[in-house]
Amino acid sequence: MMEVAELRPPDADAFEPEFPTRRDTHRRNFNLGAELALTQFKLKYTGSILGYVWSLLKPLMLFGIMWLVFSAFMKVGGSSPRFTMQLLVAIVVWTFFQEATSSALSSIAGGGNLIRKAYFPRWILVVASTVTAAMTFVINLTLILVISVPFGQLDLGLRSLLIPVFIVELYVLVLGISLLLSALFVFYRDVGQIWEILSQVLFWGSAVVYPFSMVSAHSATLAKLVAMNPMAQIIEDVRHALVTPHVPWTADIAGGGLYLVPLVAVIGVTAVGWVVFHKLTPKFAEAL
Amino acid sequence: MKQNAIALRDINKCFRVPLDRSTTLKYKFTHPRSTSRYRELHAVRGITCDIPHGQFLGITGPNGCGKSTLLKILSRIYKPDSGSMSIQGRVSPFLELGVGFNSELTARENVFLGGAVLGLTRAELRERVDRIISFADLEDCADQKLKNFSSGMQVRLAFSVAIQADAGILLMDEVLAVGDARFQEKCFDIFSRYKREGRTIVLVSHDLGAITNYCDRALLMDHGQIIDDGNPTEVTAHYRRNIGADSDRTATAIEGSTNVAPSRWGTQEVEVVGVRLLGPDGTPHQTVYTGQPFTVEVDFAVRTSVPEVVCGLAFRRSDGNTLSGPNSRTGGHPIRLSPEVKTGTVRYVVPDNPLLGGSYLLTAAIYDEHAARALDHVEDVLAFRVADEEGRLGFVDLGGRWDHTASSIDTMAHSALSTSQ
């Protein structure tokens, strides 16, 4: 008798129907998000000779130019202590904000095939995109700490323990904006251009390349206004916590209960982003 | 205890296809009142259906009947406009092989990525990755980038990942449309296994043979509605009768050629000006039936007088294999043209169509009297379908007759014994 070889797939164990639990679904979603984020991170550097170095070079180049123009030629940082470090930290924070939002902007529109052919909560694509940028940010920030601390360039203290709080605040802000932008971008391609302009405005309005003291010296009211801008608040507070205590907390600049304004703004932006994203989610597959 | 895996109640889905899509905000601002013109496409209308656990359901129907839309609704990719849907169990849609694959990654990395899209975790995949790669016969190039793989290798990898899905409800759309015969065989093997394991499967397919062979139940859809539901053999027979009736659009070429950009060459001394396929009733059809007569008519126009021409045809299967290439010379029918002839029609009559069900392409050509120089050769001028009500396997009906004998003596065992000694 000839034996008929049965073609067996790798996993032919008896199958048991299962009913998904909430926890199980969360686990699978988390896994997919992590896989997508890691893949994007990896893909960003495959095929380039310098690889990750680019992610470091970009903020460093920007820092070099800004330092030359604002610190060396225009001496804007003159009065502010450790302005060079302030500038570097601010630029690393800004680069993250810029890269995360601009890459997340097209995360839904660019994930067309996945959205049309597979089911998973769509926000995973946005989270994966922003997490990819966050990985670069965390690595860059760590590198700065590792290099600068031995040279005594950073004045660390107990207040530095607040850094994670600001990072979380920054990430929530980035996520909220990204949800809003990525959902709108599916339907209106102008959003890309609009965001480019808006983020330029935000860049110059967030005291990235000049010390906050310059604004305060100009007008206390203007300083209060700028301190209410979440990006300015995050950057200035990171400077205070990490670089030097001689830079005041934005809460002290704003005074009174106004220090809550940026926090409320972050929560508000995120809530709006979340609501808009959810409202538009069912239409993604049809529009792409 | 026996609950339905999927219960659909009056599901409707309507697409608004904009005639002029406004994707810029400027348009919205400058035309605030325009609700932009659109065409409504009612893809799925009032579908109500229960699918019990463990059922293998096949859905078929002509293109645009809404079967893929329904599958996407089940997959939760589209949200229905109205109606209710309840699904008991985890769903894994296979709308395409290799969803999520990235050509810049290695085979191994793609297993993790594609697996994650299917809902498998990294730990589960780490355990299975070697088996997945060996099942796809890709052990030697597991760490090569996917872009360096042939399309066959990519399909094999995608398929071995896809069959890892451990969901209880599987939704498949024309997965069988890709790959060669061996691969399709593998697919069927997996289907049988899923069926044995008692999973619920919904298969959307044009392959009526697969539906008859594997499904417990079939749905026939048309214009967004279920028009037949029941035994796969009966439903597919219903469909075969229907496509013939439905596609009675005239198939006339070259005016109204059904084909996309036929390639054409020749001296143009005599030109092919029309090609038709006539059914038994003598009117043009796009579908002919196995076993019934049909006629091909080729109209020609003489531009420069030639004494004699040869008319040739080629019947080609959609995969490019020519099944038959008759011409009037080998057919013993010389076409002599006196100088005053301006136009004419050549007929090729097939009394008993041996072609089995499928899509075919027809090439028509006029050559010089030696069948050497092309006067007008039009490749794939006409596309047509052959419908076979019996759904037989293969390309042609050899017309053989069956017979058998039976005996009480074990003749086979005898011969086997004698050869082994």
Structural summary, described in words:
The complex is a heterodimer of chains A (288) and B (421). Chain A is an all-alpha fold and 288 residues long. Helices cover 70% and strands 0% of the residues of chain A. Chain A has one domain (50-287). Chain A has helices at residues 22-45, 53-73, 83-105, 112-117, 123-148, 163-187, 190-204, 212-218, 220-227, 230-243, 250-254, 260-287. Chain A starts with 21 loop residues before the first helix and ends with a helix. Mean pLDDT of chain A is 85; it is low at 1-15. The termini of chain B are far apart. In chain B, 36% of the residues are buried. Chain B has 9 helices and 20 strands. In chain B, strand 19 (358-368) and strand 20 (374-387) form a beta hairpin. Chain B is globular and about 80 Å long. The longest helix of chain B is centred in the middle third of the chain and has 17 residues, at 181-197. Chain B has 2 domains: 4-245, 3-Layer(aba) Sandwich (Rossmann fold); 252-387, Coagulation Factor XIII, Chain A, domain 1. In chain B, helix 3 (107-117) crosses helix 4 (122-135). Chain B has helices spanning 25-30, 67-74, 107-117, 122-135, 151-162, 181-197, 208-214, 232-246, 411-420; strands at residues 4-18, 38-52, 56-60, 82-87, 91-94, 169-173, 200-204, 217-222, 225-230, 252-254, 264-265, 270-278, 287-289, 294-302, 308-317, 322-324, 335-336, 343-350, 358-368, 374-387. In chain B, strands 11, 13, 15, 16, 17, 19 and 20 form a 7-stranded mixed beta sheet that branches. In chain B, strands 5-6-7-3-8-9 form a 6-stranded mixed beta sheet, sandwiched between helices. Chain B is α+β, with helices and mostly antiparallel strands. Classes of the chains: A mainly alpha (288), B alpha+beta (421). At the A-B interface, helix 1, helix 4, helix 7 and helix 12 of A face helix 1, helix 3, helix 4 and helix 6 of B.
Task: Provide the β-strand percentage band of chain A.
Answer: under 5%
Which regions of chain B have little confidence, pLDDT < 50, spanning 5+ residues? 244-261, 417-421
What is the averaged pLDDT score of chain A? 85
Biggest chain contact: A-B, 40 and 53 residues
- Give the oligomer, counting copies of the same chain as homo and different chains as hetero: heterodimer
Query: What does the average pLDDT of chain B come to?
Result: 81
CATH homologous superfamily designation of the largest domain in chain B? P-loop containing nucleotide triphosphate hydrolases
Q: Residue ranges of chain A: pLDDT <50 for 5 or more in a row? A: 1-15
What is the β-strand count of chain A?
0
What is the CATH architecture term of the largest domain in chain B?
3-Layer(aba) Sandwich
Overall number of structural domains of chain B: 2
Total number of β-strand segments of chain B?
Answer: 20
The helicity of chain B comes to 10-25%
For the sheet with most strands of chain B, the description reads: 7 strands, mixed
